[in-house]
Design brief:
By secondary structure, the protein is mainly beta. The chain has 4 helices and 11 strands; from the N terminus they run E-E-E-E-E-E-E-E-H-E-E-E-H-H-H.
């Protein structure tokens, strides 16, 4: 998928680096009026493993821009990294291990803050059950970077825009 900062690449790999089949949904979300951003996406990566395995989910980007800075900006139920090109800022976030344990009884073995995205390695995904890991992305060309720098942080928090599906 193309964005204002480049092409998004989403994938799931097994413990030996093999590609794992996944359903990937990209949903455009409206920005909150308190934190206006230029774009906001929720990415749902769904897998149904046939056996218990260690799976690594990644959300990365390819950009032609020269990255002028980056920051890891975590928060409650949030693993997030942001990148800058002049006044353009983009952030990629996913839920943290505490959130995964509470809602899915899944363990986050590690999170990697990559030069071009985020990667989360998970353990304990139930066999033959549908499991969704959400990522969120937000970007903004800032008119006033000092005042607007936190906007993408709030808008790229999947725990705030994604509610796990529950059995009824």
């Amino acid at each position: 998928m193309k964005t204002a900062f480049g092409e998004l690449l989403v994938e799931v790999k097994g413990a030996k680096g093999e590609e794992i089949e996944a359903d990937i949904r990209c949903i455009e979300k409206k920005p909150d009026s308190r934190f206006p951003v230029d774009g906001r996406l929720l990415i749902e990566i769904t897998v149904s493993p046939e056996r218990v395995a260690k799976l690594t989910f990644s959300c990365r980007f390819h950009t032609a821009f020269k990255i002028t800075g980056s920051d890891v900006e975590t928060g409650e139920h949030l693993e997030l990294k942001s990148w800058y090109h002049d006044k353009l800022k983009w952030s990629i976030g996913t839920v943290d291990g505490e959130w995964l344990a509470a809602f899915h009884q899944v363990t986050m073995e590690k999170i990697d803050y990559l030069e071009d995205g985020l990667s989360a390695t998970l353990l304990g995904i139930p066999v033959n059950e549908s499991f969704i890991l959400p990522f969120a992305i937000a970007w903004k060309t800032m008119a006033d970077p000092e005042a607007e720098d936190h906007y993408t942080w709030f808008m790229a928090n999947p725990a705030e825009m994604y509610r796990p599906r529950t059995e009824t």
